[in-house]
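Students often ask why we bother predicting the structure of a whole assembly rather than each chain alone. The short answer is interfaces. A chain on its own may look different once its partners are present, and contacts between molecules only exist in the joint model. In this exercise we take four input lines together and write out one structure for the complete complex. Read the inputs first and try to guess which parts will touch.
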Amino acid sequence: MASSDKQKETVVLAYSGGLDTSCILVWLKEQGYDVVAFLANVGQECDFDEVEKKAYALGARKIHICDCREEFVSDYIWPWVQSNAKYENRYMLGTSLARPCIAKNMVAVAKQENASFISHGATGKGNDQIRFELACYALLPGVKILAPWRLPEFYNRFKGRPDLVKYADEKNISLGVAKTKLWSIDDNLMHNSYEGGMLENPSTEPEAVMWQRTTDPTKASDTPDLIAVTFDGGVPVKVVNTTEKVKITGALDIFLYLNQLGGKHGIGRVDIVESRFIGMKSRGCYETPGGSILFAAHEDIETFTMDKELIKIKQCLSVQFANQVYYGMWFSPECEFTRFCINKSQENVIGTVNLKLFKGNVYVTGRESPISLYNEELVSLDVQGDYEPMDAGGFIKINALRLQEHSRVKRMKM
Amino acid sequence: MASSDKQKETVVLAYSGGLDTSCILVWLKEQGYDVVAFLANVGQECDFDEVEKKAYALGARKIHICDCREEFVSDYIWPWVQSNAKYENRYMLGTSLARPCIAKNMVAVAKQENASFISHGATGKGNDQIRFELACYALLPGVKILAPWRLPEFYNRFKGRPDLVKYADEKNISLGVAKTKLWSIDDNLMHNSYEGGMLENPSTEPEAVMWQRTTDPTKASDTPDLIAVTFDGGVPVKVVNTTEKVKITGALDIFLYLNQLGGKHGIGRVDIVESRFIGMKSRGCYETPGGSILFAAHEDIETFTMDKELIKIKQCLSVQFANQVYYGMWFSPECEFTRFCINKSQENVIGTVNLKLFKGNVYVTGRESPISLYNEELVSLDVQGDYEPMDAGGFIKINALRLQEHSRVKRMKM
Amino acid sequence: MASSDKQKETVVLAYSGGLDTSCILVWLKEQGYDVVAFLANVGQECDFDEVEKKAYALGARKIHICDCREEFVSDYIWPWVQSNAKYENRYMLGTSLARPCIAKNMVAVAKQENASFISHGATGKGNDQIRFELACYALLPGVKILAPWRLPEFYNRFKGRPDLVKYADEKNISLGVAKTKLWSIDDNLMHNSYEGGMLENPSTEPEAVMWQRTTDPTKASDTPDLIAVTFDGGVPVKVVNTTEKVKITGALDIFLYLNQLGGKHGIGRVDIVESRFIGMKSRGCYETPGGSILFAAHEDIETFTMDKELIKIKQCLSVQFANQVYYGMWFSPECEFTRFCINKSQENVIGTVNLKLFKGNVYVTGRESPISLYNEELVSLDVQGDYEPMDAGGFIKINALRLQEHSRVKRMKM
Amino acid sequence: MASSDKQKETVVLAYSGGLDTSCILVWLKEQGYDVVAFLANVGQECDFDEVEKKAYALGARKIHICDCREEFVSDYIWPWVQSNAKYENRYMLGTSLARPCIAKNMVAVAKQENASFISHGATGKGNDQIRFELACYALLPGVKILAPWRLPEFYNRFKGRPDLVKYADEKNISLGVAKTKLWSIDDNLMHNSYEGGMLENPSTEPEAVMWQRTTDPTKASDTPDLIAVTFDGGVPVKVVNTTEKVKITGALDIFLYLNQLGGKHGIGRVDIVESRFIGMKSRGCYETPGGSILFAAHEDIETFTMDKELIKIKQCLSVQFANQVYYGMWFSPECEFTRFCINKSQENVIGTVNLKLFKGNVYVTGRESPISLYNEELVSLDVQGDYEPMDAGGFIKINALRLQEHSRVKRMKM
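Now the answer. The structure tokens for the assembled complex follow.
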């Protein structure tokens, strides 16, 4: 594409330091590109210094390492907490939420570097290529994407891991601790996800050793932790551990703390088969410790403080949001709108939820709010309050009216 | 209403043998009614012989005791399993499902007894009066309902438990083991539900002694049970306990067995605040052991075998169904329609889910189906199969088209 | 209720000057109330001076006549224009929108008059009692409603029009032009609605004379009017009649002008059967001239300027909004939320629609917008533009993936 | 692709006889394919004999001409009538419905001819390529599609109409009446659609001469036709013209007759901008005379006979169906499901609607049904019937309960 005598084209490569993107970095240079590496810190396990050195060693002109953790929690995870969204009822969207955050920072680098190409190492069958590229196209219309795993000249040359290893060998790409992976891992602040390899047989239970983020529930602490999570506007603002007398505030600190507690108690493991955007079913295992705690807490305080008819509308928005995020549509008009509406719905979602964490479980044990719709006198079995029981009779009879009409028609048809 | 010189009107009373309905039975006779008692066995803890004797002792002309357990599982719980419905995302509808089953059998008795009145002891603030009466109106249009807790002549006379106890005393109504209840309990095959009393303060954790159906998870067995649940048409048809080499078939037996296992492992406890149909918020605690196991298993096999776009439509129907059932609309045109559609959606929901039950958790560990949409070759990271990675590039670019247009408009507005 | 020796209770009565509310005014006084009459000008045909005189003549302590027309258009009709809402796909909600506007002004009067009672002449079978009272309860919690047509002491005494006429006669209530009405009419700025009487047979075509607001389309002008309606934020801001060289701005003036034009061209007649909130089916005929023009224009400019996925979400909100408004839930949490979201969705709904008005029809003939998503180059059959046709092939093949999987499963089942 | 020494590959080409597909036919042969032409009669204007001759003249091995009109009406248009579906609220889906019908018949020919290739002349920017190909992939998984307008070797060679004309000249392809088209037309039994050319400027009114299917409303008959359309199961079974004393039965005859009547009265013209599946906005003009009449009639009888809560669920299904059909998903799992559910919803949609057709308008003037939910006594303003007005008071107060709670919270926040 870029010839040697022309000004070289700059490509910003999402670089992790791993085998795939290291080979891609070298390969891109081979194709005549000027490569700028980009690495977002979204909380994954990573020796960032090591990756930086490696990038330069492989010929990157520059590497940008951005600490996106605060932004990831505040701008992506918090809206998710407000939303109660799970894709297909179960997947907490840990990877899906990180992609637009990474892409946004990467686009900023591309603009800064005046690059018109962006490249990544995502495979051609997955969701991440979509999430990543849709975000780039939305934020930098006209950008050109180089996705080597979709380019025949690349994927026909590198048909599997052995080909990459051989290439790495030729090109002096260090492999680090080159372990044979039995599955593929993606991790960030929100979760670890596992797929591929032995997981591809959906009936096989994953080996215990796979789970790296949470303690095995059967081996987790016998002593529960009791915590209180306080929300304002549907977003967590304080966590108090009443067992350990600890108080945490600040978005990132809250999330890190809940991750640690959730990990300790083996919270947030799921093993699911999900429907990828491109239509195939895929099996994934996920560990979302802090997210699982916040999900339970938020769901409780929301139901406590939100009118029942608003809940119904919000349930719809929540399903929409899950699909939008999973499909990589974060920067779409509909997702911007949905986030805006969901945020509005959270105005009164204020209060504190008490939780007990124990061997994989998050139990809600109580909740309170300064502006709850819960009205102890109104609901009491022992106090009549303002409530007129006879009204319920009229309410029921009016509701029954159309049911009786339906019966009438049914009898006419017999 | 009924005068002594006229032929007495017959009323069928939903009779439990407890204090409230015993007083109501006597009070209805006092008002001049001929009382026929009705008691449905939907799996609740009850000494049916004792209740029968008591009904006659209090002056019932007759008592009908119907074993509705098979019907309850097959016609109400199984459609719920197919639906994945939870009201406000959390309540598994144990009471809501039992009411139409009870009402249907009671209406049959009313027809047999030629009774034009039906009576029950449900309170005037709750959902059960609605569920019960809407079912009766739908199945027996024109029926007259006597709900003493909504009649001023009754509720002004009996302002609380002490008044009822005093009346019982006067009328020789035996109180049985007259324990002071700290909360109100409803139980059936599907769940125990607790509300009222100390639960009315939503921030107070219920006492450990309240939970009667499930072992305290902190005290539950340290050894998981491994089971395999097989579905056909979205309905469980076989459970195999691979730990204990037990195989169960038959709707009722499957459900009873899963209840027992779930109880042993402390599965299915929730403590929630929910929105009653009449609009107030109410706190309830529920234990749904077998239901929770089936919910997890069905959700997994459904996602494994159902197309992703059908899943989305079914998610909507599931939310609708939850609301319909919670609101007592089982015999409504929309609920009949929704059940019919949900049942259709389950055609291909066939297969077996492996589960691990442990201290309050239901872990899915694998699944298989003779007709799954899961295609191991198609999804494999290692095999290309029929799949053309380049197609994904086109797919993404077409999806990006409107996002780029959206960006264009945004820039125009700046 | 109010005894003569006590301070008389003040009741604010929604007073129209007609037979029903005149009799109610007198009857309320008879019951011992101090009556304050209230009349909202929402654009209905009415001799306000005459009504004022009559109210005093009948013994009202005071009458408040509020001109609510500007508010009705800006705060109720405009949000409806943004929403594209029709109840059950056809009813443009003319009455439903006026009720909360009237109730809000009436509650203000009740507060000013320190009245704890509100009364109205709506029947016990209709929607209006509900809309009216729900608005009052929401805005003035604890208010006591006197709805004589639901009070046995009233409706058993006045069993039909003759009883009212007789009472009017006794009480010197002038009947005005006492015509025998063959149907009931409600009118306001937005529409005329007709129901009852001869309309109660749903197969009978209404007499031509019934329609009072619009010219019979068969007799309407043979010359179309061409107009251009300009929207900003989804709300009309200018109308230009290119045929007659007229330009109108200002919310009320625009609406009045379109009403006049629509009336001239026989636009906006419908004859429908609808489902009342209380569950019965009812037949209504409506004339909504200006509303019908705006509906067509807004729908066009919205589709022109709104992203297709946002359109889908908004379609759902529109249906919700129609139900909320029809059911009298304007001041509910869910309707406030829905209006807020719909308003947000209109940010980019900016532009001008050209219309041709002719014998009952509103034809859209063209549209333009400074920020339309329409991209003439992109869509052109003659120009390729940035668009890569090959991308569509990938798009289709990826979309086909799950359809082929579905076929695979189908064949497995054979 | 196919080399001359190998057995030639057979391709089935959707052939219309027009310039594009004639050139494609010859071009495919040039590429070495054995070409079988296919032409579906879905009611379009066409000299089928002429097309047949031309196909053979250009070298087609065979041409299959299938009369799909009965099937088109019964299996595609009737389900649409049941659905009340309009894409983006306005487009009646005339083209979208025909595509799967054509594709199904074409796939049958491909199977019969043992062809593994299918080809068509749809452009690379439109919806029809998608609809057509998705249907083919679903019905014949693994089929290979040749879409010349997406193949660079084709579209780079033929950059516009002049190149095609030149090629036709070279290859002796007769051009017939070679008129310069100012827009593109697609027509079938259900509608004429116009796009492209002068329509690409969305603010320009189309020339009057464009509309070919319906009389200009300003020139249409001054005498209305009165007709009665009878439905059973939501599908039209009889049309009676009470003006002309004509009675029509049979699916195709009914539809042809209504097309003729609608055309006479200028019914069913719309000019809209819509959102294509691939994301761009496009302007289309449509004439759907018979479909517009049936839409109005069906909507009326449905509301007359369907419970209000079922209506709401069906409204959702209708929107889903519109999207599915527009997006070419007819043979998808979700569309099969949706059709099944919609069909079920129509069980009681039985009865007759009276319509007046006049200058572009379809007025409903009355309706009747043997099993309507309309209950004249129940709804009457003059008769109380079984209805207890006091029940409405209870109904309203219970509905107000949460509104008052909402007010309480609002005041707490001040």
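Check your guess against this: The first strand of chain D starts at residue 10 and ends at 14.
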